Amino acid sequence: MKKILFPIVLLLLTISCSKDDEGGIITIPTCNTPENIQVSDVTSDSAIISWEATNTSANYTIEYGVSGFSQGNGTSITNSNTTITLENLASNTSYDVYIQSVCSSTNVSVFSDVTSFTTIAPLVATDFLPNLSDFNLFAGDLENLTPSVYAFEYELNTPLFTDYAHKQRLIVLPPGTSMTYVNDGLPDFPDNTLISKTFYYNNDERDTSLGKKIIETRILIKKNGSWEFGNYIWNDSQTEATLDSSGDGGTSTFSYIDNSGSTQNLDYKIPTSTQCLQCHNSNDVATPIGPKLRTMNMSNQLQNMIDQNLLTNLSNPSTVSVLPNWEDTSYTLEERARAYFDINCAHCHSPGGDCYPESNLDLRYETSIRNSHITEHGPSIKTRTQSLIQDYSMPLIGTTILHPEGYTLIEDYIDTL
After folding, report:
1. How confident is the model at residue 58 (pLDDT cuts 50, 70, 90)?
2. Fibronectin type-III domain spans which residues (predicted)?
3. Which of 323, 345, 365 marks a domain boundary?
């Protein structure tokens, strides 16, 4: 019985929906679903969507939203063309798109299958903008210090001492470029390279989940073959850092709990622009200090840079020397002490540095002990590194407290000479 009723019902529906006023049959064209949906020209905040229509359609409904959204809860747009630009999208975000043909108010197609795309991350700026957030150097909330996809983080075998501050070091190369190996020192960086170093303290070194206090982010940008400097000072709420346009630096007073559970109170000195140039100066030319290849030659770091085409003109990182980690006791006392001198002192105490030729000390790691003049200046070095006297203690700038571990290393080494 059911088999007989179904064709009868279908016939009646066809007749009732298809008769015109004169009793003729009207065939309603099928409203076809859009096909061959394409996504092009995807940017950090927009994308062009195009499709093909197999019927003459007055309008189309485009519904889109962050990937995984439920249809009916997305953003809907009506469009009369087969191309539309979606704008004001979030960067580095995946989106789903559905499209429906609207042939008339009573004749619409089903929605297309989902089409997905992902917006790109915004490029990192290479001009000194008013706020750190303007750079797009970090993704998401600024305080999380999550690097942009265009940035890569690097570490140093033996880092500079800055009142026990932690440091996040980033390099951003222009898309499609790389650093070029020259020697074991600084690589050749392309123009519009950005290097940043962010200084922070964990609120409690025993539990990093308790957050951190971010003090400053120093930025170097290479423009037309020369390096330019800018310093961004973080606000107390840790939501933004502002360019120190005056170059006056400042003081950040705070406390944190160290690994032993003791509370440490600091008056952290943010350097002035003049002080920055005192250290970042070689023969009166501004220059980076940390990212020398020998200092970055650790934990397959150089090999990873080669594999990612971030470093070229070098095939075998083992040919690059290694600046020892001064805390690694597998090295000799001399190697450790000389490495400490190199990273903490040699940028000023070397030919072309700020303290040369007033002082003939040459504290570069590769300089022989005879030519370094460490032996003859040994007593002075010990005195200057174990005291806090303005314009006398070493280093002259960059620290506000003593580094007893470093001083002990230096003292032990000098006592052997």
Report:
1. confident
2. 33-122
3. 323
